[in-house]
Amino acid sequence: ICDPCHGNTYTTKNGYKTRNIQDIKSEIKTFFEIHKEMNSFVGGIHLENTGQKVTECVGGNVKSEEDLSKNYKSKCDPRLNREQSIEIALYVSKLLKMYQ
């Protein structure tokens, strides 16, 4: 299992705990590459996400760190919002096709 959110958390200069979607995608791609090289099975990917219109992670429809303040709701870990979650799901779908 891959857990690409937790290893890619950082704090912005404004004090927001966040994640960047490009870092998450990079870790997921590496995860697939390793499993392909080892001829092993991709068992799953754990993501922190919500269907709410939060602005807790940078990327996709949250263009920059400055946008985080618009609707940052997390009390603990920043979550991907609905659009970002769909973007990651489509990316994983593409990787599944490439690496099977």
Strand order of the largest sheet: 1-2
Instruction: Report the C-alpha radius of gyration, rounded.
Output: 14 Å
Strand content: 5-15%
Low-confidence stretches: none
- What is the general shape? elongated
Total beta-strand segments: 2
Q: Element order, helices and strands?
A: EEHH
Biggest sheet details: 2 strands, antiparallel
Structural class: mainly alpha
Helix percent band:
25-40%
Can you walk me through this structure?
By secondary structure, this protein is mostly helical. The chain is built from 2 helices and 2 strands, in the order E-E-H-H. It has helices spanning 21-38, 82-99, and strands at 9-11, 17-19. A two-stranded antiparallel sheet has the order 1-2. Strand 1 and strand 2 form a beta hairpin. Helix 1 runs parallel beside helix 2. The longest helix has 18 residues, at 21-38. It is elongated and about 45 Å long. The two termini are 16 Å apart.
Name some characteristics of this structure:
100 residues, 2 helices, two-stranded antiparallel sheet, mainly alpha, 36% helix, elongated
Furnish the topology, listing elements before pairings.
Blueprint: E1 9-11, E2 17-19, H1 21-38, H2 82-99
Antiparallel strand pairs: 1-2
Helix pairs in contact: 1-2
Briefly summarize what is shown.
With 100 residues, the protein is mainly alpha-helical.
